[in-house]
Structures are given as C-alpha cells and as structure tokens.
Design goal:
- Keywords: Hydrolase.
- It is a single chain.
- The protein contains ten helices and eight strands.
- It has a single domain, classed as Rossmann fold, CATH 3.40.50.
- α2 packs across α3.
- Strands 2-1-3-4-7-8 form a six-stranded parallel β-sheet. Strands 5-6 form a two-stranded antiparallel ribbon.
- With 248 residues, the protein is α/β, with parallel strands linked by helices.
C-alpha cells in the first residue's frame, strides 16, 4: 500500500487532518499527519525555527515510511511549497505529490512573503481579510473553530528563501487539487508563466474540489476520496508487474 505524509499549511497542526485520516487508514494506507516545528503548541518558542527545520521534519517522515510502501506527500496551501522542497530532497523516494490549494514555489523568495508578523510569530490574520472564495463554505461555527485551533507559524517563513537543488524533482508526478479556484484558472496561470515550477514538472494532473480554501474541514470525505485515489495510483505504479518478477 501507499504511505501518505500530510503537510498542513500555515497556522495548523497535524490534527487539522483528523476528519480525513480515518478514510485513508480504512483503505489500508499508512498515514503520517505532521505537526511541523513551531506548531507544537500555541506558546511554543518559534524564535529559532526556520524554513529548513520544517522541511527536515517532512523529510524525516518520508525516511521513516516503511520500506516497500509508496510515499505520497500531500501539502495544503503553503504546505504545498514545503512538500515541493521535500520532494527536492527525496526525489527517488516520493512516488507522487499532491498539492491542495497551493503551489510549488521557485527558488529565491520566501513561502509566506507578505504576511504580517509579531516578533517570532506569524499569527492567523482576521478571517475577514481572506478572499470570499477562501471562506465561503466556512459557517460561523467553523470559522470560530478555526480561529480557536489556529497556532502561529514561525515568522521565519516570511523571510527564509526557498532553495531548490535537484532537478529530479520534476520527474515526480504532481497532482494539483483546486479548491477555491478552478482547474481552468490554474491551468491558465501555468500557461501564463506564473507558476514555473508547475510548468516544469513532467507529469501534472488537475482535480477540482468544490470547496473553499480548507477542504479538509468542509469536504473531508471528498478530499479523502481524492487522496485515496492518488495513493492507489502511486502504489500501482511502483508495484512490479509480472514481467518485472520473472518466471515463477
């Protein structure tokens, strides 16, 4: 089976995947929902946590996946940029990467450039500052729950630049899950040159999901179905066929 490494976006820990994980494990896949460095608690010391620390945590989870299991790295929002960095570090171990509401970033700029920080913390902005399409399917109860669970991310994510080094990352199949924007919109951004890392990947597929920016909260069953399908594809692609196994 496959092993899914789930990377949350800003302000969220591993529990943000709780509504998705049971269906993945129920399908027989291994699952590692990550709480990244600096997100262990609301009062965690984030002053010494950098971008590389978060990437290293994802790479460690990839390395810890059982031998023989196809590794699928799943990144949500800014976690997509982190996932891409992890693929860059382990292109021979990752069978597939899924980006949900986020994109691989090119070298040079920080992943979270432009967000306001408070000392070592990058706090959740007021939800009213998000685009309407991001939060349209979050009712008042869901919005309150999101704010209550939110944990500041490390402020270093607004300053530490992305550094990519291994072009074999482009050989790892990528799946772009499109929540608050459509497949057509994303494909137009890629064609227009806005997402050069996506354009350079040899095998990219696109999947729509009718949700706002956080489908793990509002469409967990549908999202789990998408992830299970991608995990099965990765597992089948890596499993030797009869011609690979020789005569029996």
């Amino acid at each position: 089976m496959a092993h899914l490494v789930l990377v949350p976006g800003l302000w969220l820990d591993g529990s943000s995947w709780d509504a998705v994980v049971p269906a993945l494990r129920g399908a027989g896949h291994g699952v590692s929902p990550l709480t990244l460095p600096g997100l262990e608690a609301k009062d965690a010391d984030r002053s010494k946590v950098g971008l590389q620390d978060q990437v290293d945590a994802i790479v460690a989870a990839i390395d810890a996946a059982p031998a023989g299991e196809s590794v699928v790295v799943v990144g949500h929002s800014m976690g997509a940029g982190l996932a891409h960095l992890a693929v860059d570090a382990r292109p021979d171990r990752v069978a597939r990467v899924v980006h949900i509401g986020g994109f691989p970033a090119a070298s040079g700029a920080p992943l979270a450039e432009g967000f306001a920080v408070d000392g070592p913390d990058l706090p959740l902005p007021d939800l009213s500052t998000f685009d309407d399409r991001d939060i349209a399917d979050l009712d008042e109860q869901a919005r309150s729950a999101f704010v209550a669970r939110a944990i500041a991310s490390p402020a270093s994510l607004t300053t530490d630049p992305v550094r990519l080094t291994d072009e074999r990352r482009y050989t790892v199949p990528a799946v772009m899950v499109c929540p608050e924007y459509s497949v057509d919109e994303l494909q137009s951004w890629v064609a227009g040159g806005d997402l050069p890392e996506v354009a350079a990947i040899a095998d990219v597929s696109y999947v729509d999901i009718d949700s706002g920016h956080w489908p793990q909260f509002t469409r967990p069953t549908e999202l789990a179905g998408i992830l299970n399908e991608q995990a099965s594809i990765a597992d089948t692609a890596q499993r030797p066929g009869p011609s690979d196994q020789g005569e029996r």
